[in-house]
């Protein structure tokens, strides 16, 4: 390319202007999940008057709350270019530790909750150490931890539900007409957003996910960041376990089975990239509400649960395909 050719401005950018089409494409790429949520709400409100009622809106929030909390923790891991398949099992084992230490060991309720949170952090730390220092891919490390945590849940409970105390049950209750699970979802969402957007730890997550080697050369402790994201994911999973136990008034050995797939879907639908370095808590929240609205709308319209699985699968496939296309465009 000659110097004259290099000096010539690209077509459509002579005055720094961006075409309307490019602006629309960029807006849709950044806000696709939100636009989809708005359109879906409009369609459902027209299709059935039961959708936009107060009780149903609260029901959507309750349905989204538990997995949204898991997804907020999953956001840290995916931003750092990892994946955590153990969050459902960690939620179950953490809630079981809370119930078991209260029912069988007689610990006060506040202490059992701390035990549950520490259990979540501990399982997350083990996954992080395996990923960072044993060089196991996060997929394999957390797949193993998923089996270990679920197995320990069954061992501790002997495969039976264990009742929880009043303080734990509070996490599934309603106060002044507001469901506590929704409050917990908002609190954990705000906490996750603060960590990602306003702390050096959050900046390290984005850097490691964007380019691990460049992060290492710039002085970021990559191993510490890798362990940290899994510890945070484990803590968020433990909180989700508390909410599940609170709603059921017991810790169930098979609780949160399959929730890890929904958590990953929430994050990806919300605009995060599975290759790392990109993702927002607000996007994860929108992804959670979008899937909850889809499920709720299909239930109201009496769509078979079998077909619901098909629809959800197609939505997830579309979101991942959209992420792949978006990354290809960014590469050009």
UniProtKB/TrEMBL annotation:
InterPro entries: ABC_transp_permease. GO terms for molecular function: transmembrane transporter activity. It is a multi-pass membrane protein. GO terms for cellular component: plasma membrane. Its main location: membrane. Keywords: Cell inner membrane, Cell membrane, Membrane, Transmembrane, Transmembrane helix, Transport. The chain crosses the membrane at residues 33-51, 57-78, 109-129, 176-196, 227-245, 281-300, 306-325. It comes from the Bacteria. It is found in: Cell membrane. PANTHER family: ABC TRANSPORTER PERMEASE PROTEIN YPHD-RELATED, ABC TRANSPORTER PERMEASE PROTEIN YPHD-RELATED-RELATED. This is Ribose transport system permease RbsC.
């Amino acid at each position: 390319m000659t110097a004259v050719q290099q000096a010539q401005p690209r077509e459509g950018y002579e005055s720094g202007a961006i075409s309307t089409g490019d602006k629309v494409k960029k807006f849709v790429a950044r806000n696709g999940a939100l636009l989809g949520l708005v359109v879906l709400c409009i369609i459902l409100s027209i299709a059935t008057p039961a959708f936009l009622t107060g009780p149903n809106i609260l029901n959507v929030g309750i349905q989204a709350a538990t997995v949204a909390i898991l997804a907020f923790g999953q956001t840290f891991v995916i931003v750092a270019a990892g994946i955590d398949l153990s969050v459902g099992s960690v939620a179950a084992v953490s809630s079981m530790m809370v119930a078991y230490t209260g029912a069988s060991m007689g610990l006060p309720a506040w202490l059992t909750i701390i035990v549950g949170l520490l259990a979540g952090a501990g399982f997350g730390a083990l996954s992080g150490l395996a990923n960072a220092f044993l060089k196991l891919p996060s997929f394999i490390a957390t797949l193993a931890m998923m089996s270990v945590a679920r197995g320990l849940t069954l061992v501790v409970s002997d495969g039976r539900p264990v009742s929880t105390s009043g303080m734990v049950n509070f996490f599934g209750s309603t106060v002044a007409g507001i469901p506590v699970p929704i409050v917990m979802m908002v609190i954990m969402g705000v906490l996750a957003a603060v960590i990602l957007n306003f702390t050096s730890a959050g900046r390290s997550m984005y850097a490691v996910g964007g380019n691990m080697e460049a992060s290492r050369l710039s002085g970021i402790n990559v191993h510490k960041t890798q362990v940290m994201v899994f510890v945070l994911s484990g803590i968020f999973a433990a909180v989700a376990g508390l909410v599940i136990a609170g709603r059921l008034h017991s810790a169930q050995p098979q609780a949160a089975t399959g929730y890890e797939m929904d958590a990953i879907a929430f994050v990806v639908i919300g605009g995060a990239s599975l290759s790392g370095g990109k993702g927002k808590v607000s996007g994860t929240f929108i992804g959670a509400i979008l899937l909850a609205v889809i499920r709720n709308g299909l239930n109201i319209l009496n769509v078979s649960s079998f077909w619901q699985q098909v629809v959800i699968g197609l939505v997830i496939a579309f979101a991942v395909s959209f992420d792949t296309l978006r990354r290809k465009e960014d590469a050009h």
